[in-house]
Amino acid sequence: MIISHNLAALNTYNKLRSNNRKSTNALEKLSSGLRINKAADDAAGLAISEKMRAQIRGLEQAKRNVQDGISLIQTAEGALGTVHDILQRMNELAVQAANGTYSDDDRKRIQEEFEELKEEIDNIAKNTEFNGIKVFDGGDGNSISWNVIDSGSSGNYWKIATNGNIFLAVGTQGNLLASTDGINWYQPAPPVTSVNLNTVNWDGQHFLIGEGDHIYLSTDGADRIGFSSITGMTGRWFDIDYVGGKYLAVGDNGQLATTTDPTISNNWVPLVSGTTEQLLDVASSGKEYIVVGRNGTILRSTDGVNWVSQSSGTTGDINAVIWANNQYVAVGNGVILTSPDGLSWTQVANPSDIFYNVLYNGQQLLAVSWGGQLFTSKDGSVWETSDSGSTFDDINGLAFNGESYVGVGYNGKVVVGFSDTTISLQIGSQANQKLDIKIPAMNTVAIGIHIAKVDTQIDASKAIGFINNATNRVSEIRSALGAYQNRCEHIMENVSTYTENLTAAESRIRDADMAKEMMEFIKQNILVQASQAMLTQANQLPNGVLHLLK
Hints:
By secondary structure, the protein is of the alpha+beta class. The protein is built from 6 helices and 32 strands.
């Protein structure tokens, strides 16, 4: 017998401590309902479970993201539903104004409502928001992604126009270049091959193309270009356009001409411009007409017949003019001018470069300089430039079809720009699990009705075509939004199922089997009590030594 070490008590104490620990663990699992409460319970299981928990919480947020996306889509689609209603009313007004039983005074009253409806479409496009985000923003000039495209042509191109479905560019030696998307180009048979084609515009029914002694009109559909010649014109024509309810042609030596119907040969009437300067471009607000040209020339007319020279404050060539955002904006050789009425002109910028074209997309102005810079302006007064490298070198003409921008220039060079109108939804718990929703600009410029008018019978007839194209455009976007919404709803179902299955898998790893843990707890509790009793007995064993000492 020994007294220095009570090995039996020590062994019993170790068993008691072990049983206490196991009982505590069982109690922890019972109280939390989890099999794994700390890494020591199951290190590998904890790692897997935590990854699953992060994924589950991410999926739960993704579901909320998709729900928000559906709400945004419904907001956009609802706004476009209102635009559709407005277009239907505008079509009704155009059909009414096209009827021969109405006088021009009657049509002016109709035009007043027509303009208000156009303004409301712009208001919807500008102010439709979701959580402070402009839904129909359309992007700005700095958010346009530009790419140089191989057109397959080596010709030099001056100008480009679009009817919303097709881009058509004109240039030297009768060169024509056409595309439906700005990416894939083909060369239609030209109306003439021996002279330069100087200008192209879309009047709502035809492409108007001008050269030395002729004007050509496209006669075929949007995907195939054919031309008929309109004779009775002499000179070199630099712009032929339908503006302010009139067809006007401007060209060499101060030549001006007009017609009510360009499809009739020898129907053009020469006008007295009062100048011998080369005239390059024409624009109209609907109240007056403006023509610009070489050496700072600006002409103004209230009826499109009688013209008065205006002071531009510059001797540089003025190459292009546009009516945009309730003002005229003119660009040329080292000059940018603005005017609210065509009478008084303000030089707002003095760039050291040459501009041949200016474009308005319904939200801002864009101009490409001969030196290869893109200039943009929200109000026509403050202009910003973007660093585009050599992208815009040698670019002359620029056009916008409501979704994409196309520029053309020398040696068949074509640049295409797409606005970043993407709204990305995070639809999963991992990086790059996104759904991109593209909602383009939907103002009157983007849908092609900004120049539509009904104040004459001819204008009203053309307006019907503009409105039909706009209606188709809005229907196309609404259909795309409907497809996005249906996809989002399927994503919701998939994410919900995914979350359910992942939660079940995590539960099998992490959750405690309550019945099993209760059995373990009772077992360990009994063992603890037994160990305590035996420890008492073990502590009494050394007392036997006292009997030997008596």
